[in-house]
Amino acid sequence: MTTYYIACDLGAESGRVIEGTLNNGKLLLSEVHRFQNQPIKDKESLYWDIPQLFQETLLGLRKIAEREEPVASVSCDSWGVDYMLFEADGALITPTYHYRDPRSQAGMKEVLSKVPWETIYAETGIQKMPINTLFQLGAEKLKRTGNAQHLLSVADGFNYLLSGAARFEVSMASTTQLYNPISKGWSDKLLLALRLPHRLFPRIVPSGTVLGPMRSDIAQQAGLENVQVIASCSHDTSAAIAGLPAAGQDWAFLSSGTWSLMGVETPEPVINETSRQLNFTNEIGYGHSVRLLKNIAGLWLVQECRRHWAEKEQDLDYDVMTHLAASAPPFESLINPDDPRFLEPGDMPARIQAFCKETGQSVPRKPGPIIRCILESLALLYRKTLREIEKVTGRKIERLHLVGGGAKNSLLNHFTANALQIPVIIGPTEATAAGNVLVQAIALGHVASLEQARKIVQDSFNMEIIQPHAAAWSAASDRLEKLFGTG
User: Fold this and answer.
1) Number of folded domains in the chain?
2) pTM of whole model > 0.85?
3) Are residues 229 and 251 both part of a single domain?
4) Distance (Å, rounded) from C-alpha 344 to C-alpha 347?
5) How far from 12 is each of 76, 85, 222, CA to CA, in Å?
6) Is residue 483 scored above 80 in pLDDT?
7) What Cα–Cα distance (Å) separates residue 478 from each residue in 253, 337, 455?
8) Least C-beta-crowded within 10 Å: which of 358, 370, 404, 458?
9) Half-sphere exposure of 276 toward its Cβ, with a 13 Å CA cutoff?
10) pLDDT tens per residue, range 87-109
């Protein structure tokens, strides 16, 4: 029997509507519609064009409807931390702020003036980052929250627009820094301390919750019938980890994209002095598993370099930039990708050059050396993070599963294997969509368990395995430690 599902995957750079076809234990994914996600810059503010994103999502649904296939369900996943505010009648309160909006820094100071960082971490197990929902809310205006009936993540907000059911899926709730993974609910202590009204925070539901049928008006616009809306794994990383062909406990994962998320699965949260000092985060996965991870710098640096060069009439695509980087000399200059100067949009090449100059290194001038500097530095940051994971968990990691849009960057993948000195398993490239679809299938009783879902992934996709080489990476790591304390 063939069953059809729809995964709406909303990324910080682009969105996609993907049809998943499940037949005889094999999953086929077909990208039906892709669209850009360009934030709007208004003076000092940065926010998302949510109405446009939703219209693009509906366009993708209409394209699938034209295929006249009996779709069983649909679910949206997205990046974390950002949120949408809705009035009681379902109207969106604009703007929906971007996590890189400068207000987050002020919000962080405001929150920490009311609640000690140690208390926040003990309550949530989430690492300290100014982009977190908690700190964004610290900068919110009372007028906006006073008029709002619901606060929802981007993915949960889209599921709400599709179904009319306002629910916060647990994997996404856990990223807000307002969820307590021990009590498995919203942190009353933090809501009270920050005077955040309980009505704003909808009921938290498990991954794979059927929200109900698609709203009749939306179904009519999309041309779809009898389609269920499911809160699959709303957080894209949670969906990606559900879509890994992984088994045992000696593996780690790296979700490579605009951000890098690196970690392991554990049965219980790890919240202690060591995990707090090392800035580890505890996010919830399918079946209330825990993703112990770090949210660290990613290909945002490359994306910003490309954007800056395009504005200067030097529009290089990613393949060209990677080729130029591969041709550049190795280890000429290194940066700390997590340095705060690299967080906000701007002239990223100039910031990288300034960092190298300040640290007495060779200053890269052309695109090739600049991109190589970024990619080598990212790989060394992954090495540092993996060593910290082993320290916190007491596990020896023997292999790395690498997924996300960054999995297409072969040069970075090889750098990563060499830096970590363990095999790196690439893919599936569409792990997020695969996990989204398969959790939908579990929710509808079409797949028995996560273990069966992961077996389907293993049987459906070809995975590349990169073996480590190049011992020179150990010396580069030592050099980075001496320069920046990040080795």
Assistant:
1) 2
2) yes
3) no
4) 10
5) 14, 19, 24
6) no
7) 24, 16, 40
8) 358
9) 13
10) 999 999 999 999 999 999 999 99
Burial class (CB in 10 A: 0-12, 13-18, 19+), 396: exposed
- Whether 339 is catalytic: no
pLDDT tens for each residue of 145-193: 999 999 999 999 999 999 999 999 999 999 999 999 999 999 999 999 9
Range of the domain at 330: 246-427+448-453+460-487
DSSP state of 426: E
Same domain, 220 and 251: no
Say if CB 400 and CB 422 are below 8 A apart: yes
Contact 313, 455 (CB under 8 A): no
Full DSSP string of 232-251:
---BHHHHHHHT----SSSE
| Residue 274 and residue 169 in one domain | no
Where is the domain boundary, 198, 217, 236?
236
Beta carbons of 439 and 232 less than 8 angstroms apart: yes
Mark whether 8 and 157 lie in a shared domain: yes
Alpha carbon separation from 11 to 28, 51, 79, 146, 428 (Å, rounded)? 21, 15, 6, 29, 17
Of 82, 101, 236, 338, catalytic = 236
